[in-house]
Amino acid sequence: MIGFIIRRLLASIPTLLAVLTLVFLLVRVVPGDPAIAILGDRATPETLAALRAELGLDRWIGAQYFEFLGHALRGDLGTSMVTHRAVWTEIAEALPHTIVLTLAAMAIGCLIGIPAGVWAALHRNGPIDVLTRLLSLLGLSFPVFVSGIFLLIVFALQLHLFPVIGNPRPGDWIDGLHKLVLPALTLGIVMAAYVVRVTRSSMLQVLGEDYIRTARAKGVPRRSIIWRHGLSNALIPVVTVVGLYVGILIGNSVLTEIVFNRPGLGKVIVSALTQRDYTMLQGMMVIYCFLIVVVNLITDISYGLIDPRVKQ
Amino acid sequence: MTDVALSAPPSPRRAMIGRLVSNPTTVAGVVLCSIILAGALLAPWLSPHDPLEQNIVDRLAGPGSEYLLGTDQFGRDVLSRLLWGARVSLLVSFLSIATAVVVGGAIGMISGYIGGRFDLVTMQVMDVLLSFPSLILGMIMVALLGSSVTNLVIAIALTAIAPFARIARAPVLVLKERAFIEAGRALGFSHLRILLVHVLPNIVTDLLVMGTLWMATAVRTEASLSFIGLGVKPPTPTWGGMMRDGFENILDSASLCIWPGLAILVLVLGLNLVGDGLCDVTDPKATQ
Q1: Distance between CA atoms of residues A256 and A254, nearest Å
Q2: Do A285 and B133 touch (CB under 8 A)?
Q3: Residues A15 and A157 in one domain
Q4: A68 shares its domain with A119
């Protein structure tokens, strides 16, 4: 297992390097001078030159690239151009909120999605299956800010079950949990819609396999056929989708954090965007990419845990 | 009996259209999309008011005979803004997906056709693009480029190029080994002619089916960017922008959020239903 993890870690290095290169290029390829964008058209040539020197924009692009790579790999993401605090500090303060939200949404997505997908597969083409398919398509069609606002209108404004603003009181975990419900549901419902579809089709494929027929012929109890022989073999595509979906989840968490006014990476990135804080944006992109690489790694490792054949 | 024996089997294309028409989900999707498309095209005639006309006296008015769906915080007619907003939503999502299909399709086709190290590097770049959260990539691109229809199209297209490149590449890898491509090469056809005349027709269906499904994503992305404030600049009505305005006044009038939200939902659901139907018809195994 350790050898498998090390191999996977080594395999993710080129991806991480490629992503860092893309981030570097994205910020620089875009037309326009960042110094003018930050200081405005009326800035004097001297202040512009000073800012360019501060940002390192006056040097050869290759030198900028290697310096950026070196700093990023050491975890030094620079200083915010607006708040003048270390980018890493700002991100580290916001990151736990986003991770809690994402994990809660994943839990909701899997707890609803996997059983519903199995259920639909067992009742193929019946009313339950059709209803599940329609509901999942509806779930997929909701942009998260729309479903978030709709949930807010119903559960916070009409029924008064949850607070309108989701900024939790520090140290009060019951309050935190209470305020997490609606945002996590908003993200979790869309994820459940994805998971249902994949679980259903994967389960249908597995249920048609010879070994399931053999298990039935041997008189293995139905429950054991479904969960032990069926689902455990159908899980690999589900895990793939959950892993891939984390990227969407992280993107969607930005919208959810805005709707519910929650602290997190979403708020940081939106204020960086509006204030044209380039170092912050660059740092955020590195962090997002790093998160995705880590999730891909966890996904790969979980393949090995679910299916021992993958390890070979 | 002889009638049956003599009648020719329907052509594959006609059979496909037959399956499409008899599929209730596709029909429902086409109906939903048509309603929105008709609203967008007929906006100048259907709109009861000028979508930009402010009437402060009637601000935040509820639904009534003068304003069917009420007014927003500036007293602008919500129905008229919804109808005109459909234009931006459809235009941006259609153009961005068309760009992604053409650019991504070309990259995938050429990469698969050339193969070797070029293919390896191109696909690595596509994988990197694919791994990046698309909404965040779109947000950053729009913020860096500035928000205009053209820049929105570029930003959303960029988030969708990688999947189309992947879809176009896979069949090309198989096709280029087939005898008819070999024959074309032996006859001295140019690579461009082989790609456009002999390879493209074989992958165009896959690209179009994916295009429909991705258009739903593009509508969502455009609306999300507008909601964050990175969409087409106000006062031009956009559904995402209307949601944003409505959200700021949610305590006064929740309906300002509900109408544009439902409009986005109807269009995305319609496109998803059509895309699902097309998947069923072109590859019945995929969604058994």
Answers
A1: 6
A2: no
A3: no
A4: no
Cα B282 to chain centroid, rounded: 19
Enclosing domain of residue A229:
87-311
One domain, residues A101 and A11: no
Question: What residues does B71 pair with on adjacent strands?
Answer: B77
Asked whether the beta carbons of residue A251 and residue B133 sit closer than 8 angstroms, the reply is yes
Question: Which of A51, A73, A95 is the last residue in one of the domains?
Answer: A73
Are A68 and A199 contained in the same domain? Answer: no
Minimal Cβ distance to A258: which of B127, B228, B288: B228
Q: Distance (Å, rounded) from C-alpha A206 to C-alpha A220?
A: 16
Quick count: other Cβ atoms within 10 Å of Cβ B262?
14
CATH number for the domain harbouring residue A305 = 1.10.3720.10
Residue A78 lies in a domain: no
Question: Which chain A positions have a beta carbon within 8 Å of B261's beta carbon?
Answer: 146, 149-150
Q: How far is CA A295 from CA A1, A8, A15, A83, B28, in A?
A: 18, 12, 13, 30, 37
Shared-domain flag, residues A44 and A120: no
- Asked if residue A79 is part of any domain, the answer here is no
Whether residue A141 is contained in a domain is answered as yes
To the nearest 10°, report the CA torsion of B162, B163, B164, B169: 90
Q: How far is A181 from chain B (nearest CA, A)?
A: 20
Are B246 and B239 a contacting pair, CB within 8 Å?
no
Does A57 lie in the same domain as A34?
A: yes
- Do A144 and A246 sit in the same domain of this protein? yes
Ramachandran quadrant class, A99 (left: phi over 0; alpha: psi -120 to 50; beta: rest) = alpha
Query: Do A20 and A72 touch, CB atoms closer than 8 A?
Result: yes
Chain-chain contact of B243 with A145 (C-beta, under 8 angstroms): yes
CA distance A219 to A230: 15
CB contact under 8 A, B143 and A141: no
Asked, as a colleague might, if the bond just before B235 is cis with ω within 30 of 0, I would say: yes
Least CB–CB distance from A146: residue in B132, B265, B288: B265
Paired with B77 in beta bridges are B71
C-alpha distance from residue B205 to each of A290, B13, B144, B177 (Å): 36, 11, 35, 20
Which of the two residues, B52 and A207, has the higher pLDDT score?
Answer: A207
As a whole number of angstroms, the distance between CA A16 and CA A22 comes to: 10
CA distance B159 to B141: 10
**Tens digits of residue pLDDT in B28-77:** 999 999 999 999 898 888 888 777 777 777 777 777 777 777 777 777 88
User: pLDDT (tens digit, 9 = 90+) per residue, A46-77?
Assistant: 888 887 777 777 778 788 888 888 888 787 88
Digit-coded pLDDT (tens) for A265-296: 888 888 888 777 778 888 888 888 778 778 87
Number of domains present in the structure of chain A: 2
Same domain, A231 and A138: yes
ipTM, two decimals, is 0.84
What is the distance between the alpha carbons of residues B221 and B225, in angstroms, rounded to a whole number?
A: 6
CA distance A307 to chain B (A): 24
Instruction: Select from B260, B264, B277, B4 the least CA-distant residue to A143.
Output: B264
For residue B194, give the DSSP letter: I
